[in-house]
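Sequence in, structure out. Go.
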Amino acid sequence: MQIPLKVLRTALFVVVLSSLSFGQSKTERLDELIGGFTRLRQFNGTALIAKEGKVLLKKGYGFANFELGSPTEVDTKYRLASVTKQFTAMRIMQLVEEGKLNLAGTISDYLPDYPRSTGSRITIHHLLTHTSGIPSYTDFPGFMQRNARNPVRPQEFIKFFADSALQFEPGTKFHYNNSAYFLLGVLIEKVTGMSYAENINEHIFKPLGMKNSGYDRNAQLLPKRAAGYQQNGSQLMNAQYIDMTIPYSAGSLYSTVEDLYVWDQALYTHTLLPSDAAQKLFSKYVWTDEGAQSRYYGYGWFMNTVQIGNSTDSVESVEHGGGIFGFNTLMFRVPKEKITIILLSNLSGVRLRDITKGALGILLNKPYDKAKESLALRLQKELASGPLEKAFANFRANKEKPSLFYQSEGELNDVGYAFLGEGKIQEAIEVFKLAVELFPGSSNAYDSLGEGYMKSGDKENAIKNYQRSVELDPNNDNGREMLKKLSGT
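Output:
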């Protein structure tokens, strides 16, 4: 089912706003900031922002269920996606403290049926830090499209990736890895004799009084659970179904902003772990240098340097985001300033990082930006109603106005695929070419352009772009598969 988005009828005036705005409290400015992103469909969900133990903002924006017109509330429940990983890491460290696990212990020490050729070389530390070298099952070509709907048993599912060749020698590189955190859940179950869900509930949620958190099961009736949505250009759609046994200990928990704030505050205490063990969660073990951000990774947490508003100042954060069909989440902390920003959205593709930067500007008295219009979505509207040449000329003119518009590779990619889905292959190719022009270091941009050329029957250009995609990202399995298909090998 698709729900048309309302077209903005008024011009969007985006201003650089000083946190010293007359007559407005920090709470009012935070509310105004998030409200602006919500109006542009760049956020839909619930936010909690606190500093030094005082909650400044706790509010729902938009709808928990668009079809029913049910508004979001402060106790709306959201799928956490990869924010789950910090709870998995906490339970692992509790078991280390109990002497049931050893960080230097290998997979084979605890799971004797796991292939010893790799399992005897990969430690729990490697799994926690995404340095195991095991291929992430969510990276397998077409996995989510083919397998997301099918329930699995954890012990059986690990066979799906256990026999795969390692991508690198354990401990030598970082590659974000859902297989690793799935394995950690299996290890938790193995040494405790309890399910992963029971472990997290009994040893984290119950002790902290997090009554609105748990393991999300599709079949259960869960009051105030948000429905998930995704955007296809100017259309809002119900998110693709996923059986929650697939993300498991890498991404299957749900919670509310209120419960997550309880969790946040507990991390400043020794309620769940003694101080020396807790510190290991936030140690900088590996430099990630992957994707758009370069940062450190600990156990279930990223350590990052984040810009304050649009100033030249920055702060050190401890954070983790998550994304799953229909949901985007962010748990963001600045321990030195005792700042907490929790953003839970039931809409994919929202701009949580931009909201966070703006909120930091407000909290720390620095200038910040309000929401900006999407260049990609503006392009899509103009391509739907006018000549291709004019639409692209306007795009190139508007990209020189960063105070008014923002550029997003992901949104350009989505617009291109929206045209592919409509059979408008030439328009899709032109959009993908624009993405390559703007983001020449992106493997995915070349991969998408290769697909566009392949569907147009231009084999030569398809091969050329898939080759470039694989050069930029040797782990691009889809690119390699497409090159095999195009070359007939």
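Check: Residues 327 and 346 are 4 Å apart (CA to CA). The domain at 81-363 is CATH 3.40.710.10 (Beta-lactamase).
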